[in-house]
Design a protein that fits this description.
The structure holds two protein chains of two kinds. Chain A has helices at 7-17, 71-80, 132-142, 198-208, 263-277, 330-338; strands at 2-6, 32-38, 41-47, 51-58, 60-63, 66-70, 85-91, 96-101, 104-109, 125-130, 157-162, 166-172, 176-183, 192-197, 215-220, 225-229, 233-238, 257-262, 283-290, 297-305, 309-321, 324-329, 344-349, 356-360, 366-370, 373-374. Chain A is of the alpha+beta class. In chain A, the strands form three sheets. Chain A has a twelve-stranded antiparallel beta sheet with strand order 14-11-12-13-25-24-23-18-21-20-19-22. Chain B is of the alpha+beta class. Chain B is built from 16 helices and 22 strands. In chain B, helix 1 packs across helix 3. Classes of the chains: A alpha+beta, B alpha+beta. The interface between A and B is medium-sized, with 28 and 24 residues.
Chain lengths: 377, 578
């Protein structure tokens, strides 16, 4: 194999695939990046067996071939090279890759590409185009709600559901739920439902960056994988097997109190409360005071930690319905308020032992349900 | 055949009475020591030959016995310590029954030499089996010398039940050291077969006596208890650091108003003060002197006088527990100087770890400083000082965190440490009745077997108070609607199983209350397991949380959370330092 490419492209490509390199694996080849020539392009791939990322960069292929190069060594080296043309030449017999750039010459010991896991090609299966901007914002709006521990693996994933005209993402961790929808740009004839690991989606959101070209989602039949493909990148994620909780029944259909607050003011009050609440299992108390003719009402956010102290902030709100005092894990509030981009947010409650519902005001494509906390006095 | 009823002969009565008071040589020593101390002696010499059967001689420099009264001492119920029944309510002397000398003389050959301070000439009396055989006038210093020879010569049955000489000597030694501890102002000397066994200097300092009894190395690991408790109960003495423990309660020595007592409740008070500090089956060394008004204590319970009754037993119990616990807590605040006691072997693989903060020549396995969580009562009173700042180096075997502190290398058991962190935050929440309860998104139905379900039904109220919202759901099923927020990542099933887990299988002392037990079990479940790889960040957070704990160095079951290897030890092991 002998190829030449621009340093800039190589560095960008490695930056993309580097995140999928297995940090500590018993399989040494998983710590490597696959380099392979493909149709006058150079393919870079890395995988940790759960998540695989590939990227194609423009290159001048002098002779075809492939190898895997230790990721850390290669990435660190490329980081030091001047912005010039990089020549890669593999001596197959010794699996040594010579990396030369300007007056720098380096030999890196490689592992035969035969040992690298085969990355799936899209093949057949349902596929569908998704709008990048929608995809990124949807991922951002739900991934925080996914569980981070493996107690219930299905909750570490995001349920992706696609019907004829709409795609919905849902994540839940046993105490909260985030759900968002978006219209499809093209029609889809077959309903799709899959649970994609939240980590994989977070990586996807990162690597698709601010591109404009659509992302194609493919679910190859019977392989338990989801493949997201953009122009010159591809992300393959294993799906989580199992049944996602039926979240529709968890979203209350009505409310007894609806409070509309400024998103930023509410978020700031929650952040302040979190400073104290983190010593007390993140418990914060919301005292919702309905308005009258002269005063629209308010929401008082307070937290109290025996050792640290206590905090109380009043956020102006438009409150309809009954007065209520309800406890929440304040992290769950800050998490969801951070991803809401409308100026106002509505909090709907049904008493202190029913879930709280948070919706952006003026949009109906997002909803989050947070289970209350009972706070002893 | 009918046996006629007859009044027993005096000699038989004496022997029966002697049986209660004089059980074995050690009881003779005890009675004679008490007499000497009651006589106001400042120096007491005891000589024991042949395990005490040949000879026990106790000589003192007390006030002596007036020659006119000397014969009376061999009579039963003859005493100078008590005049009327009312005096029994406020006994200040060790003896008072007037039985000791007569009982002892009834079962031995006794030789009494005494001179009272007001007389010029002393008296010598000899008695055999309680009968005076000889009386003479002798020249002797002020005080009393009692020699008991041929003990039990007329009670062969008792002789059979005595143990070996060595065992009897050991008992005598224990009795003797108890009095030496109770009276640090008196000089005690004990000779076994002409060899000096023990000597206390009579300086008045308890720690000096402790050095004589336990040796200097042990005493360095004792902490002074000193508290004017509430309700007029003063508690003074020494208790061992948790790093020093014994496998039995024998080294817990209690004195009430200078009188050695055996009281299982007071012993329990001391062990309770070590709750979560010592492993199951380990007991502290403690010498505790309780001082209270004689009116509040009844010593006239048993002839041997090692049992007492208190008017307010709970006050005494609580005072002891509180003072001992306070002492244990303050221990860390004292910031003991770091010393490098390197106990044993050269083999690093073995238990060669040093005692972390203290001089560590302990023969016991727990070379670790430990510290306790406390009840809220003491919690507020005491300053809380944390561990030194630790820098995380990494994780070993997915089970231990390696960290560096200013004084060496720390190995921290991640499970034990996390258990401690959870336990303390849960306890704090439970004690202030502020347990946050996080409602579950979906109520979870858990079906248990019959036994477990019964168990759970019994605990439902306690569980409610601890932040669980569990409801019976027909049969042996339960619905879990909410879990305590502190236990975080546990699934409802795991949490319930944790609650029901039987504590006996874990080999630790049961904490007192039902809620405590549940908390302990739940925390055990919820704590991160050994085998979980932790990120650097997780390790750091865990250490920061551990630093905030009241007693970071043991897990709630009393096992150590950390091992420290001091810089000195490392230097020594690498041959940088002799």
């Amino acid at each position: 194999m002998k190829v030449s490419c621009l340093h800039e492209n190589l560095a960008r490509g490695l930056g993309l695939v580097g995140r999928a390199v297995a940090a500590r694996s018993t399989l040494p080849v998983l710590g490597n990046v696959l380099l392979a020539t493909e149709d006058s392009r150079l393919r870079l791939s890395a995988t940790n067996l759960e998540l695989g990322i590939s990227c194609w960069i423009g290159a001048k292929v002098h002779s075809e071939g492939s190898t895997t190069v230790p990721a850390k060594t290669f990435i660190d080296l490329v980081g030091t090279l001047p912005k010039d043309q990089v020549d890669l030449e593999l001596t197959e017999r010794t699996q040594t890759l010579q990396v030369s750039c300007a007056q720098f010459k380096n030999d890196i010991k490689c592992i035969d590409s035969e040992e690298f896991p085969i990355l799936p090609s899209a093949g057949d299966g349902q596929s569908l185009d998704l709008n990048v901007r929608d995809l990124r914002s949807m991922i951002g709006q739900v991934v925080f709600a996914a569980a981070t521990d493996d107690a219930r693996p299905v909750l570490t994933g995001v349920e992706v559901k696609i019907d004829e005209s709409e795609v919905s993402f849902a994540a839940a961790d046993g105490f909260r739920l985030a759900l968002c929808n978006s219209a499809l740009s093209s029609t889809n004839d077959q309903a799709i439902s899959a649970i994609v690991p939240a980590r994989g989606l977070a990586e996807l959101s990162r690597i698709i960056g601010d591109r404009d070209d659509p992302v194609t989602l493919t679910l190859p039949v019977g392989r338990g994988q989801a493949i997201f493909r953009a122009k010159d990148i591809e992300l393959v994620s294993q799906l989580v097997e199992g049944n996602f909780p039926d979240y529709q029944q968890l979203i209350p259909e009505s409310y007894s109190t609806r409070s509309v607050l400024g998103t930023d003011e509410f978020l700031n009050a929650c952040r302040a409360a979190q400073v104290f609440a983190r010593e007390a299992a993140y418990a914060a108390r919301l005292k919702i005071i309905p308005g009258d003719e002269s005063d629209p009402g308010s929401v008082e956010v307070s937290a109290n930690a025996a050792e640290t102290g206590s905090n109380e902030s009043v956020v102006d709100a438009t409150v309809e319905g009954d007065a209520v005092e309800i406890g929440f894990n304040v992290r769950y509030l800050t998490d969801v308020l951070q991803v809401i981009d409308t100026p106002n947010v509505a909090l709907e409650t049904n008493g202190d032992s029913s879930p709280g519902v948070i919706r952006p005001v003026g949009r109906d494509d997002f909803v989050s349900v947070i289970m209350p906390m009972h706070i002893g006095r | 055949m009918a046996v006629p009823i007859a009044i027993l002969h005096q000699s038989v009565v004496s022997k029966i009475a002697a049986g209660e008071v004089v059980e074995r040589p050690a009881s003779v020593v005890k009675e004679l020591l008490e007499n000497a101390l009651d006589a106001g002696a400042s120096s007491i010499n005891v000589t024991v030959n042949g395990g005490g059967l040949q000879l026990i001689r106790v000589s003192d420099d007390g006030i002596g016995i007036h020659s006119d009264e000397a014969e009376l001492v061999f009579m039963r119920h003859a005493t100078s310590k008590l005049c009327s029944a009312r005096d029994l309510d406020s006994i200040k002397t060790l003896g008072f029954r007037g039985e000791a000398l007569s009982s002892i003389s009834a079962v031995s050959h006794m030789d009494l030499v005494t001179r009272s301070s007001g007389e010029e000439i002393g008296t010598r009396l000899r008695a055999a089996a309680g009968e005076i055989t000889d009386r003479a006038i002798v020249s002797t210093p002020c005080g009393t010398i009692v020699s008991v020879e041929n003990l039990f010569f007329n009670l062969p049955a008792r002789l059979k039940f005595l143990k070996s000489d060595a065992a009897e000597k050991a008992r005598i030694g224990r009795v003797f050291s108890r009095y030496a501890l109770a009276f640090p102002g008196v000089r005690f000397r004990l000779h076994f077969d002409k060899r000096q066994k023990f000597q206390s200097l009579g300086t008045g300092s308890l720690s000096d006596v402790l050095v004589a009894v336990y040796g200097a190395e042990t005493v360095e690991q004792l902490l002074e208890v000193s508290g004017r408790g509430r309700h007029g109960v003063a508690v003074n003495g020494y208790v061992s650091m948790p790093s020093l423990s014994r496998s039995n309660r024998r080294e817990i020595t209690l004195f009430v108003n200078g009188r050695y007592v055996q009281d299982s409740r007071l012993t329990l008070a001391i062990t309770r003060a070590y709750h979560t500090l010592l492993m199951k089956g380990r007991y502290p060394i403690a010498v505790i002197c309780i001082t209270l008004s004689p009116v509040d204590v009844d010593v006239n319970v048993h002839p041997a006088k090692t049992e007492v009754r208190f008017r307010e037993p709970n006050h005494v119990f609580n005072s002891i527990e509180r003072e001992v616990r306070r002492t244990l807590l303050n221990q860390r605040a004292l910031n003991h100087p770091m010393t490098s006691g390197w106990p044993h072997s050269e083999v690093v693989e073995s238990v060669d770890w040093p005692a972390p903060f203290f001089f560590g020549n302990s023969v016991e396995s727990d070379d670790l400083v430990t510290e306790d969580n406390v009840e809220s009562e003491t919690q507020t009173e005491l300053p809380v000082t944390g561990l030194p700042l630790l820098r995380v180096i990494g994780q070993v075997g997915a089970a231990y965190i390696v960290a560096e502190g200013p004084d060496g290398l720390y190995l921290i058991d991640q499970h034990a440490a996390h258990e401690r962190v959870l336990y303390e935050s849960y306890m704090a929440a439970a004690q202030s009745a502020r347990v946050e309860s996080q409602t579950l998104m979906e109520a979870v139905t858990v079906t248990l077997d019959y036994e477990a379900a019964e168990d759970l039904r019994r605990h439902l109220d306690a569980l409610y108070a601890l932040g669980f919202r569990v409801e019976p759901f027909g049969g042996d099923s339960f619905v879990v609607r909410a879990l305590p927020a502190v236990i975080g990542a546990l699934t409802p099933e795991q949490a319930l199983l944790g609650v029901l887990e039987h504590e006996n299988s874990h080999g630790y002392e049961l904490p007192p209350g039902e809620e405590d037990r549940i908390i302990l079990r739940v925390c055990k479940r919820a704590a991160v397991r050994a085998g979980r790889v932790l990120s650097q960040k997780e390790q750091e957070v865990l250490l920061r949380q551990l630093e905030k704990c009241q007693s970071p160095v043991t897990c709630p079951h009393g096992r150590p959370t950390m091992i420290r290897i001091s810089v000195e030890h490392l230097e020594k092991k690498f041959g940088r330092r002799g």
